[in-house]
Amino acid sequence: MTDPDSTATGGTQPESGPDSDPDHDEGVSTLAKQGSITFVGNVVKGVLGFAIVMLMTRFVSPSVYGLFVLATSVILFMQVFANLGLPLAIDYFVPQYLADDERGKAKGVIVQVTATVLITSSLVAFVLALSAASIGEFFQEPSMRVALLFLSVTIPMLAIYNVLLTSYYSIKKLQYRVLMRDLVRPIVRFAVTAGLLLVGFGLLGLIGGYVVGLFVAITVGAAVFTYKAWDLLSAELELVAPGPLVRYSLPLAMTSVVFVLMGHVDYFILGFFLESDNVGIYRVGYMLGSGLMIIFNSLSPVFKPLIAETRDDIDLVEQRFRIMARWIAAITLPVAIFLSLGASSYLAVLYTPQYAEASAVVVLLAGAFLFNVTFGGPDGSLLQGMGYSRIVFANTLVLFGSNLVVSFALVPIIGIEGAAIGSATALFLVGGLTLVEIYYLDGIHPFTRDFAKVVGAGVPATIAGVPVVYFLESDTITAGVLPVVVVGTYLLTLIATDAFTDADAQMAAEFSPTLRKWLPSR
Questions:
Q1: pLDDT value of residue 176
Q2: Quick count: other Cβ atoms within 10 Å of Cβ 440?
Q3: Measured on CA atoms in the order 372, 373, 378, 384, is the torsion positive or negative?
Q4: Using one digit for the tens of pLDDT, what is the confidence trace for 324-334?
Q5: Could you read off the pLDDT of 138-159 as tens digits, one per residue?
Q6: DSSP of 153-217, one letter per residue?
Q7: What is the CB neighbour count within 10 angstroms for residue 232?
Q8: Triad 342, 432, 338: Cα angle to 5°
Q9: Cβ distance 25 to 13 under 8 Å?
Q10: How far is Cα 406 from Cα 368, in angstroms, rounded to an integer?
Q11: Is the model's pLDDT at 305 over the cut of 60?
């Protein structure tokens, strides 16, 4: 989500005049400017996330870490049912009531949603606690009972956490969402987890860090929201009809169920067929491979409204889509190359040598995520922006179904690589579907000579990186040298093939004027 004023500006075309450039699209500037802000937030969150996992994998065995991953996956899945999707109603109804100066009703929505999800999530937490032993038996992990008993308290906590997030969306105070979600929670979790692991708490240390980090984030978030939205919270309470809230929320809750299942189905299948250490090893490989999402996740919140506001101008939509696709491919491709070539080295250096077993997982997922995010992303931001929400939901079902079927068939045979093939198959399939659908519906495609140059530059970069992997024996040296060789060769190839366009220069100027001066363009 972006600043609505900035987004609106992105859709306004410059006035024509003697000094104006008819090919200059202000949406490109908005995409770069707002994308760079979200990129910084995502980088901070990503770095802290990697640091937490690196900490865990050094202090506990893969089996303990895998057990924790499996338990938190169950919690996150149950939490979707616990809140009934109601927090999503806050950032839909509250802005409307505030726009109509009905603060009492806006407060009523927040109060009613909070009270409802507290009751429903507490009931789900109680049921989960009673079922903890049975779930542990299902996954053939007796220790999972203890993990679920302690983690069950986080179900109502996560419900309030989501209420706070959507409340920040509703009053357009997203910087405080970043404070709560991207800074306070991971920093506190890291510090508490580190302290507990140092004194030898093991699995309980992982659980303690997770619970305390969430609790402190909620406390800080609630305090900041109370201070910043006091004029809203101090208004006289006016309850609203619950029917519209439920009718709006339930369909989104069902969609959320599919998304959560899609994100955790691999862990459930691995936990059912294999030991918990396989879950832990796969989780590390998946995390490293899906790190390629950071560029897409930074541009997507800006890209969708830019497409939505100009959806009737197909030529402009296609122009923006092509720029988006080229930039995602250009930044993500070299990263995918050196991650794939040096997967075992990065896993050994960042985590421990025993996690190098997930190198094939990294290679498969890096290629699949690269393809998928270039052509629309897992959440179908291009299709969403064009208003094809039903197609997005259908694609989501395809993504989940294909992953489930392939993983279920292959995991018993080839282990964690089977889960990776399932995820990769689903990502390639949905990425291809997005390309076909958007071309069939609106005649839009990203394939141009400039796009081909960006993709083609990956060939010499890969060739240059192969000797580094084969001739350097040290994993640490390989991990340091490989990105320099691959990215350096990639940039030189782009320059040699005259791959930079005026739109690239415009984007670069928004990131850094200095970068703009050094960037060759036509």
A1: 76
A2: 9
A3: negative
A4: 788 888 888 99
A5: 888 888 899 999 999 999 999 9
A6: THHHHHHHHHHHHHHHHHTT-HHHHHIIIIIIHHHHHHHHHHHHHHTT-THHHHHHHHHHHHHHH
A7: 20
A8: 10
A9: yes
A10: 15
A11: no
Q: Assess contact for 245 and 109: CB atoms under 8 A.
A: yes
Q: What would the two tokens of residue 45 be?
A: 């969150």
Least confidently predicted of 7-21, 29-43, 269-283: 7-21
Backbone φ, ψ for residue 321 (5° rounding)? -65, -40
pLDDT category at 178 given cuts 50, 70, 90 is: confident
Tell me how far the alpha carbon of residue 301 is from its chain's centroid: 11
Which pair of tokens denotes residue 373?
């995010």
Q: How far apart are CA 194 and CA 189, in angstroms?
A: 8
Stretch among 32-36, 231-235, 277-281 having the lowest mean pLDDT: 32-36
Cβ atoms of 287 and 68 within 8 Å: the answer is: no
Q: Which of 520, 516, 463 is nearest to 496 (CA)?
A: 520
Q: Any idea which residue has 């410059």 for tokens?
A: 14
Q: How far is CA 252 from the centre of its chain?
A: 18
The pair of three-digit structure tokens given for residue 99, joined into one six-digit string: 């726009």
| CA–CA distance, 520 with 34 (Å, rounded to integer) | 23
Q: Using CA atoms, how far apart are residues 113 and 347, in angstroms rounded to an integer?
A: 43
- pLDDT over 70 at 40, yes or no: no
Computed over every residue of the chain, the mean pLDDT equals 81
By C-alpha distance, which of 143, 150, 145, 138 is closest to 214? 150
Phi, psi at 380, each rounded to 5°: 60, 50
Q: Residue 519: what are its φ and ψ, rounded to 5°? A: -85, 115
Q: How far apart are the first and last CA of the chain?
A: 33
What pLDDT was estimated at residue 29?
A: 53
- Distances in whole angstroms, Cα of residue 417 to Cα of each of 65, 238, 361: 19, 55, 6
Cα 310 to Cα 171: distance, rounded to the nearest angstrom: 25
**285 near 348, Cβ under 8 Å?**
no
Question: Which tokens hold the place of 167?
Answer: 């409340």
Q: Helix crossing, 314-341 with 458-471: angle to 10°?
A: 10
- Integer Cα distance of 182 and 446 in angstroms: 33
Gap between the Cα atoms of 468 and 362, Å rounded = 18
Burial 317-342 (b: 16+ CB within 10 A, else e): bbbbbbbbbbbbbbbbbbbbbbbbbb
CA distance 109 to 118: 14
Statement: residue 22 has pLDDT above 50? no
Q: With the CA atoms of 114, 119, 120 and 123 taken in that order, what torsion angle do they form, in degrees rounded to the nearest 10?
A: 150
Asked if 82 and 121 touch (Cβ cutoff 8 Å), the reply is yes
What's residue 309's pLDDT? 62
pLDDT at 405 exceeding the cut of 90: yes
3-class SS letters over 204-250: HHHHHHHHHHHHHHHHHHHHHHHHHCHHHHCCCCCCCCHHHHHHHHH
For residue 291, CA distances in Å to 191, 256, 297, 501 come to 23, 22, 10, 27
